[in-house]
Amino acid sequence: MSKVEQHKNLIEIMRNAKRVFVFTGAGASKESGLPTFREIDGEWSKHDPMTFATFEGFISEPVKVWNLYRLRQRQIASAQPNLAHVTIAQMEQYYPDFLLCTQNVDDLHERAGSRKIVKLHGDAWQMRCLECGRIFDIRDYNLPDEFTKESLPKCPGCGSLCRPNIVWFGEYVPQEAIAAALDAVYRCELMLVVGTSGEVSGGYGFAQQARSNGATVVEINPSEGMLTQYAHFWISEPAGVALPRIWESVTKGQGK
Ligand code: OAD
Ligand code: ZN
């Protein structure tokens, strides 16, 4: 099939699909200025994940870990959704059966208008009590930009230490999140994989499962990753460029 025929084919499939599952990773927020994890200049090249993304690391260096998350919160607050987030939010309006599942802990999908969303790896704006397990929105409390040992965030309910509500290495993704995502994976006829290396998420098996159930799998990522092997179509471009262009072709003349 020529490139033009392939493109036409993809547009036709996307136009006619009803049940759609979108799966995003850090690459979706890269054009908003937020760093990815495993690229050369990514987060894990600057900060050791054993300290900043494990429970053991948090317990031994809680001030350091919290202050990195405070910095990330400031970065997220000053970032804006890009055209990838905006296009994905538009897709939710178009498809009758739609779910967005993200590994990102920022809120750029929500700020772009996405509502049917499952966050697999937690939320950068939340803290969770180590004792009672309750979850709080950090923005509801007047917390300092930088913590000291004495000022670390405490549970408003029971007074115990709180941690970032992020799924760290060696921890389980909440069962409800996995169940909701899998439900959509099994149902979908089209899966879009956007901006993830698949290094972590390959383990969840979403792309493999969707493909073996007969769904068309489309990946948008400038680089090849662990999930590219499951993609029927791989669009090797930044998501903020490719998604709006493809979506314009899909919705052209549709009055939507
Ligand atoms: P990675 O850093 O592993 O992968 C980011 C992917 O985005 C790479 O494949 C890049 O090629 C791609 N990318 C870069 N720019 C892009 C663009 N403009 N458009 C589309 N794609 C682009 O990030 P994730 O796969 O999201 O977990 O990582 C998964 C998890 O590992 C994260 O949720 C995080 C990390 O440990 C936690 O923090 C719990
Ligand atoms: Zn508590």
Give the structure's gist in a few sentences.
By secondary structure, the chain is α/β, with parallel strands linked by helices. The chain contains eleven helices and nine strands.
Task: Please describe the topology of this protein.
Blueprint: H1 3-16, E1 19-24, H2 27-30, H3 43-46, H4 49-52, H5 55-60, H6 62-78, H7 83-94, E2 97-102, H8 108-112, E3 117-119, E4 122-129, E5 135-137, E6 162-166, H9 175-187, E7 190-194, H10 206-212, E8 216-220, E9 233-235, H11 239-251
Parallel strand pairs: 1-2, 1-7, 2-3, 7-8, 8-9
Antiparallel strand pairs: 4-5, 4-6
Helix pairs in contact: 1-11, 7-11, 9-10
The structure holds 2'-O-acetyl adenosine-5-diphosphoribose (OAD) and zinc ion (ZN).
CATH-derived architecture of the largest domain: 3-Layer(aba) Sandwich
Number of helices: 11
Strand order of the largest sheet: 3-2-1-7-8-9
**How would you state the average pLDDT, rounded?**
96
Strand/helix succession: HEHHHHHHEHEEEEHEHEEH
Radius of gyration, CA atoms, in whole angstroms: 19 Å
